[in-house]
glutamine synthetase (Papilio xuthus), 397 residues
Amino acid sequence: MFLKYITTLKAFKSNNKLTRCFSQENFTTGSSKVRSPINTYYNHFMNLPLPNDKVFATYVWIDGSGINLRSKDRVLDQAPCDLSALPKWSFDGSSCGLAKGEDSDTMLIPAAIYKDPFRKNPHIIVLCETYLPDGNPTSTNYRSSCAKTLSEINNLEPWFGIEQEYTIFDNDLWPLGWPKGRGFAVINPLYSYCGNGEHIAGREIVECHARACSYSGVNYAGSNAEVMKSSWEYQIGPTLGIKAADDLWLSRYLLNRIAEHFGSIISYHPKPMGKCHPGIGCHHNFSTNKMRDKDGISVIQSFCKILCERHNEFIKNYGLGNGEENKKRLTGKFETAPYNSCIWGVADRGTAIKLKKSVVVEGKGFLEDRRPAGDCDPYRVSKMLAEICLQYNKLPC
């Protein structure tokens, strides 16, 4: 066997050609292995040249679960110049938890266009709103009401910055990099946050996601490893108006698609591994032009007080469904505030709403609402924050 190996090695060297390194089909990420198959046939077809009048458009929408994304493709004759050039479409709403079987033709209305990082230019991904046959928004179409609310405070120039945390699971439904056989990672990890090497898992997925988002037109701002091994965070914005929420949903779709290639699963559950391990949040940073102007700190402080006064209402909208799962995360531990109380403070990661020290020093800036769960709908959160400016006329947002 050894002689056969030497003979083969000499043959490779004599050909003086670049050869495929089969060892690179498997590469490690932290202490776990992720399989990355090299499929020659798939690559062949993906690289076939297409006619100039064939543009693939992937329509993406939120299904009845409120967190899962669905998609289907259609071929256009040309790349659309704007949303009005995109055709409306329909789908079986009953198979997505959005309609009844006897009246299931649910409409897809294009809302935002992104470049397709999988097929590349000129192909596109279309983020859609969903509507019932009677013309009303579906139960999980919160974008419709969010867009209306934000349009009413255009003069305030609302900025949103979103910090999305998530957990990467292996295909055995156990966190990537955790001991196999349902073994647990260290309860109080000291080196996973912003870590590297054996202290993290899944960086390949994170790197692919960063580039896919930036290519597509998502306002991707950065990423870091989180406290629990196999959990990560990426940031969107700050962005004006509804784009931050659009970008977050599209970035979730891209993350799920990329995970497919690595045989991994993405979870946004707020407490995926039980009470002894950190949770998964989706902090929302918010500001208006008044908050960003000189002496805006007074507006920010007034805003924080109102956020706490309406705490119970916000908690119900800050996670999937009525936010009950988020209460498992908001325990007062692992740098969270308890769900049954609300306090705001400066540079305190144990508060519900946090201000950076630089905001206090400069007397202007933004606030960070740390309550939203990893599986929250950013349209719901953005609308709740924007409504305060509408409902409280005395507050000069």
